[in-house]
Amino acid sequence: MQLWMTRGEMLTARMIVGDTSETVPDEALVQWRGAGWDAEQIETQKSGGWGRFGLVTYPLPRSYRRIKDGDLLDMGARQWRIVTGSGHSPEHACLWNEREGVLVSGDQVLPRISSNVSVNITEPDADPLGEWLDSIDKLIATVPADVITCPAHGQPFRGLHVRLTALRDEHRMRLYNLSEAIAKAPMRAVDSFPLLFNRPIGPEQLGMATGEALAHLKRLEVEGRIKREDRDGVWWYHAAA
Fold first, then answer.
1. Architecture of domain 4-239 in CATH?
2. Using CB atoms within 10 A as the burial measure, which of 101, 173, 196, 228 is most buried?
């Protein structure tokens, strides 16, 4: 049996599965300190080890069948069109059955929560939130509003365009609130948590929350609304002049 994947997902999977080092890499330490983690938080995270993902997954095959945006796949009596998105993962493939009006959205569109969109150490200067917002526009322009959407988490739902618009507006409001706060006083990534999340961030969520915060801050940088300053390894964000 052959594995069918997009190239971006396959290469990313190989990279993650292949990283089985027990030592926390310097790139992670730079990001944690830059985001504003204190010494205790860094030591706690270091004690958890690194590269465990590859130890709990099946080996990937050496070859695969590449799928691309716009490809048509015949599965049984049905045909599915590949619609790719980005931001949550590099080249996420959604499956769209145009004839029967069904979209398998995976993690690209979720009914109740927003997909995690984070800056990771593998590409620290990436703009995943910008890619994710672009993917929302692409899905609205490509897939009809009345499809039945089948997500990776939660129940199937109707109202794809309504949900996509709500997700876009939610993140745009977060960006607005964040830029307004930074205009009043510089802040680090960890200082932005109350503006981005509606719950306290504990040790278990610290890494994911940091990645999301950095993604929002990077989007504001790309839009020219804020600038980042490195102060002894800690990143401070202030309003652009």
1. 4-Layer Sandwich (3.60)
2. 196
